[in-house]
Amino acid sequence: MSTLRLLSAAALLTVAASAHASSFIATTDAIVGTLKATTDLTSDATNSIRDNKIVRAARDDAASFVASEGSIRGVKLESALDFIRQQAPQLQASDAQLAQAILTL
User: Fold this and answer.
1) Chain segment 6-56, per-residue pLDDT in tens
2) Residue 48 CB: number of other CB atoms within 10 A?
3) CA 64 to CA 8: how far, in whole Å?
4) 63 and 19 inside one domain
5) Contact 54, 76 (CB under 8 A)
6) Signal peptide: which range, if any (predicted)?
7) What are phi and psi of 94, to 5 degrees?
């Protein structure tokens, strides 16, 4: 009787482990797929933003904005922020985050 219970317990653990592993794989695949789609969308938007003359011209204003913690807001930065928000309305970023992003382009 104890051998039967041991075999039953081993079989249940094997089934549970494989179900857990396949569930983990499916969840991981779903997350990776979503991140890839978001990255592709962001990458397309970023490429067009990165190559834009308005955004490139705003680098000095963005540096001043970041250095002054938002006190100095140049005209070129304002134009770039408007352009970015028009091109990528799905981005939910603050002015400071966008200014820092402009500096990294």
Assistant:
1) 666 666 666 555 555 445 455 555 555 555 554 455 555 556 777 789 888
2) 13
3) 69
4) no
5) yes
6) 1-21
7) -80, 170
